[in-house]
Amino acid sequence: MSDTAPELHFRLAEAGDEAFILSLAERLLSFDLPTWRKHKEALAHLRGDLRRHLLDEPPGSYMFIAEDNDGEPVALLHLQKSSDLLSGKPTVHISDLAVPAAREGQGIGRALLAWAEDWAREHGAAALTLNVFPGNTRAQALYTRNDFQTDLLKLVRPLR
């Protein structure tokens, strides 16, 4: 992993970014899912959700593309304005954060988190939140290194 944060430029995603964004869907699920989940089904739903947020632009949903100095897209950062369950204070939720495999280990994830924190502060958020699957240990390590703490555990009982 790089010790120096790369210089990134952020912009709102546009319809022309759809192919890049959808190419990252597999990366967002590149770990062992809970046994009751079906990878193919999850991937199809995720792609549909990404496409919907990109093209429909629901209120409070902001998809950003991070670009390098050459203008090449290097990451997706999807933020959603929300509120805290117990205090009602405004929060910003990191819905999706993805870096292509070829760019892994260059400090881009850390730079995305720092930028998301700045954006959240600028928008009056009291906290920056995210969800992570138990099998996504690489992401968990990144979040722990960047001072994220466990706040709420989501337990599921599949009904078949």
From TrEMBL:
Keyword terms of this UniProt record: Acyltransferase, Transferase
InterPro entries: Acyl_CoA_acyltransferase (IPR016181), Bact_Acetyltransf (IPR050832), GNAT_dom (IPR000182)
Domain of life: Bacteria
Domain N-acetyltransferase: 8-160
Record-linked Gene3D superfamilies: 3.40.630.30
Annotated GO MF terms: acyltransferase activity, transferring groups other than amino-acyl groups
Signal peptide range: none
One Pfam family per UniProt: Acetyltransf_1
PANTHER family: AMINOALKYLPHOSPHONATE N-ACETYLTRANSFERASE-RELATED (PTHR43877:SF2), AMINOALKYLPHOSPHONATE N-ACETYLTRANSFERASE-RELATED-RELATED (PTHR43877)
Protein name: GNAT family N-acetyltransferase
Species name: Metallibacterium scheffleri
